[in-house]
Amino acid sequence: MAGKLGWGTFVSQADKKSENGHEQGSKSLSKPEPEATIPSAPPQSTVSDYEKKKANFIVRTFWTFVMIAGFFAALFAGHIYVVLIITTIQIVSFKEVIAIANVGSRARDLRFTKSLNWYWLATTMYFLYGESVVYYFRHIILVDKVLQPLSTHHRFISFCIYIFGFVFFVGALKPGHLRFQFSQFAWTHMALFLINIQAHFIMNNIFEGLIWFFLPAALVITNDIFAYICGITFGRTQLIKLSPKKTVEGFVGAWIMTMVFGVGLTHVLLSSNYFICPATNLATSILQDIHCEPNPVFIPRTYTSPEFFFLPPGYTLSVTVAPMQIHALVWATFASLIAPFGGFFASGLKRSFKIKDFGDSIPGHGGMTDRMDCQFIMGMFAFLYYQTFIAVRNYNPGAVLDMMVTGLSIDDQAHVLKSMLHIWARDGVMPPAVS
């Protein structure tokens, strides 16, 4: 209404001016009124970019605190909740990686391509989870008549399940699409190796003790934070072309700070049996009283240096630390110098497909794979390092019990039991009358 009224008034005044020439002439000779000054508004694009950055920062910060709170809640709630988190990460990461190369399946009318991808995932997870459960919880499985055959023949059953999918894949091959289908087959198995198989070792770290899971994960996160801080503070030299923002100064500075943090965090974790004790019951939480025989690497030792020429005769240097704190230096070095190349690998993969992120599973942070690319390789290293240099025994009670039940006759089992009773009586564990 206001716009229409103003336009009508303008037209009527113009008509009157055209009819009265004198009026028009006098107005033309009069001094023109100064035009009203309208303040210039900022460019719309600038305001839009600022609002977008502000909104993204708020969302990113909010979900950062949500992930931190969820992680520590699961960590303190018990091993089973940490296992659920790792399972979720595996599934989401696999979905993001597979989605990159699965775009052409609909256009090619290949209906079973996506279903086969999920079949491979289910088969792999059944095999890997079964391996972990059979190894760490045989003492529970062997008392169940239904689970015992599944445990004994687990690998053969897994192979049969895989072969069924393999036969179905070959039967679904279509002329004219063979190159695409075999590319999908190779891509899926690459994703299974880089994500699920490496995550399997992280799962084993959880069962060996939460310190073997939490410490390497914390080292990778710490290194990432200090790489950013050191990079923006005094970073000058580009590290690698795949990631132009990575600098040599940030790389080295993060290495030093991660080693310092790793030694300190290890010292804190050694005071908690909840972190250093292996998982014997998945229902365990931090509120329960847990006891176990600690691994020798958790017990402090005094290390004495030899006599140096620059020291007085008979004078040496000594330091008392837990061996695990020395191992933490090695882990921090791997987390700083090697694990970032998992991120560089992911960056190169994304560049090859011309995408910024693997997905949008985490608001403000991109995909799950973008956050876990370094964690997978670090978790695998932690497991192999632990088994090679730290683990004190290769067989747990479940493994020994499994060998007795499946490999010995009833008479041999009774003989082993009687021998153990005599040994316990000899060592004073029980009265001789009992044996």
TrEMBL record:
Per the record, where are the segments of Basic and acidic residues compositional bias?
A: 14-34
- Topology class, membrane: Multi-pass membrane protein
| Single annotated GO MF | phosphatidate cytidylyltransferase activity
Pathway given for this chain reads: Lipid metabolism; Phospholipid metabolism; CDP-diacylglycerol biosynthesis; CDP-diacylglycerol from sn-glycerol 3-phosphate: step 3/3
Q: Which Gene Ontology biological process is one annotated for this entry?
A: CDP-diacylglycerol biosynthetic process
> What is this enzyme's class at the first EC digit?
transferase
Pfam families registered for this protein in UniProt: CTP_transf_1
Q: Which InterPro entries match?
A: PC_trans, PC_Trfase_euk
Q: Which family does it belong to?
A: Belongs to the CDS family.
Which keywords appear in this protein's UniProt record, sorted alphabetically?
A: Lipid biosynthesis, Lipid metabolism, Membrane, Nucleotidyltransferase, Phospholipid biosynthesis, Phospholipid metabolism, Transferase, Transmembrane, Transmembrane helix
- What name does the UniProt record give this protein? Phosphatidate cytidylyltransferase
**Where mainly located?**
membrane
